[in-house]
Design a protein that fits this description.
42% helix
Length: 263
Amino acid sequence: MDVQLDMKHIPQHIAIIMDGNGRWAMERGLDRTYGHKEGINTVKKMTAECARLGVKYLTLYTFSTENWNRPAYEIEAIMGLVLRFYETELFTDNNVRFRMVGDRKRLPDGVQKKIAELEELTKDLDGLTVVVAMSYSSRWEITEAVRQIVTEVHDMEELPENILKNWATGGLRAEDITEDFISQHMQTSFMPDPDLLIRTGGELRISNYLLWQIAYSELYFCDTYWPDFNEEELHKAIASFQNRQRRFGKTEAQVENEMSNEK
């Protein structure tokens, strides 16, 4: 089916929960690791297609902090496959910048090194930014943000100037803790919140992913396993997004009036 997209209304930030690799493999009588291997190929396809469509940020839930509880052989296989994804040509050929969010310290040394190399190599590319959420969970990220704030409070030299001035009157005030202040301490502070969150594989949950950032994201769930998710499936998700009205707490009439005033 040919899905028609409004190229003037492409979501700027798409986040994806890439689910169904293991089930895809098991339904074919294969080990779960084969599903992860095929899933890497889908990641490459989606990276290229999002770059072509003009998406600015693509954030991929690759490995959660909870995934460390999986069997050791599966974790080892996933880490090996991750290294295969970090092919320089995929990023340079598509003008794609690479970033990672998550607890790097828990990753194998080889993966940490490759991530750092790729971030440095692609830092000046200005097309799509692919953000890999690896050894990541939202509760971990929020906890780390709070720890960072507490650390800064105990180290005045690290405080922003607008906060530092308040030390003369007793330090960081309660009213200084705003949504923006907290967002600035998230690992995702370098990018806007997702416009569209896609989950493949048929499950209807968020799985501890970008909980702070998706407060007003549009959610799209599909039954397709991640290895079978292709360009057409991506277009369906974007078309669904384009057919929705994003109100951000306002009424339908308010949004329509604002849109009329913009024309």
